[in-house]
Every structure is written in structure tokens, then in C-alpha cells.
Amino acid sequence: MELALDTPRLPRAPEPATILTVVANDCSDGELILRTAGGDRGAFDVLYRRYARPVFGLALRRLGDRGRAEDAVQETFASIWRAARSYRPERGPGAPWLYAVARNAITDRGRARSDTPAEIPEEASPDAGPLERAEAGWTAWRVHRALEELSANERAVIELAYWSGLSQSEVAEYLNIPLGTVKTRTRAALARLAVLLEEELG
Questions:
Q1: Among positive and negative, which fits the CA dihedral 5, 72, 157, 186?
Q2: CA dist., res. 153 & res. 5, Å (int)
Q3: Contact 200/93 with Cβ under 8 angstroms?
Q4: DSSP state, residue 178
Q5: Is residue 33 classed exposed, middle or buried when 0-12, 13-18 and 19+ CB atoms within 10 A define those classes?
Q6: How high is the pLDDT of residue 36?
Q7: Closest Cα partner for 27 from 16, 17, 42?
Q8: What pLDDT score was predicted for residue 132?
């Protein structure tokens, strides 16, 4: 399958020297995001080349429509350019952050498709009220804290699978480790999280 996606239109920036692009190719995802935050268009282009196709594949599986998937890719990378300064390397590698941005863009595309003209509801809204939202916020915070107590290897597979929406096979491919290793780390991580969260969520 051919994918014809153009790099999103962004504010013009001085073109980096060829040697800088070569160096950028050797950078980690996190380093590229940090360089993008500083306005490095070459680093952004490397990120785009690395992730445009995986993000498109994820969007196509979730949206089932090529046009909307391509729109989601464009929105993802435009958001990365705008929000790169929010990335914090001490919280984890760049890929989970990038896939979280992609997931939000994909969700927005899906929501746009399902939006219908507003009508007067006949029943009470099923949306969570203030108390429920506060409780959900506390739970999310505690889960994030528990994740920080996992080993780096275990945290990586959990973040990629549950936050970035990757299958275990995709996680194995991304991390360049055997699928069995991904499954073992996932089981160990979930068991550890169950212990850590037993009091709060039990």
C-alpha cells in the first residue's frame, strides 16, 4: 500500500544544513522532540519520516477511512510541532508521548465523524459529574505514580500498549525485542501494578 502524505505545513524556518539532518537521523525520538521544541525543522522532518506510516496505520485501523486517517496524521504532526515544548524526557521515551498525541488526533477525527446536530435530550446525561471526574482524576494520578515505580523495561511496554494503543506485536517491533519478552514484561508489570494499586483501587 502506498502512502502519499505530505509533511504538514508549518511556519517557515531556516533550512538546516545537510550535516545537521544527518546528525538528527542518529538522535533518539526524545532528542528529536526536544530539538523540534527549539524550532529545528530538520529534527521534525526526521520524526515525520519515522512515524508518518505507523501513525497512519494506527489511524486507518481505528477510523476505517483513508481520508480521515490521513487527516489524523496531519493533525498529529501539526500538534507535535506546536506542543513539543510540553514533552518531558524524565517522564519517559519520546514514542509514547508521540503516540499519545496521535491517539488524541485520531479520537478527534472519530468524534468529528460521529457528531450529529444537537437535540433536546429525553434522558439525563450519562456524562460524569464533578465528583466522578474528580475521582477519575485521582485514579489517573495514582496510576501514573505507580507506573513510575516499575522498571524502565516494564514501563515502556505498558505505555506503548495502553497509552499509545499498540498491539503486543507492534510493541515488540518498535522495541526490537521478541514477542515473548513483551508478553513476559507485560504480565510482570500488570502484576506489580495490581499490588501497588490494591489499596486505592481495590
A1: negative
A2: 33
A3: no
A4: -
A5: buried
A6: 92
A7: 42
A8: 52
Q: How many CB atoms are located within 10 Å of the residue 116 CB?
A: 5
C-alpha cell at 198: 490494591
Listed in sequence order, the residues at least 6 apart from 177 whose beta carbon sits closer than 8 Å to its beta carbon are none
Residues 142/200, Cβ–Cβ less than 8 Å: yes
pTM of the full predicted structure? Answer: 0.50
DSSP letter for 10, please. Answer: -
| pLDDT, position 11 | 45
* Residue given cell 505530505 in the structure block: 6
Residues in the chain, pLDDT under 70: 1-24, 112-144, 163-164, 199-202
Residue type, 52: A
Instruction: Give the cell for residue 194.
Output: 495490581
At 181, the amino acid letter reads: T
* Predicted local confidence at residue 35, as pLDDT: 93
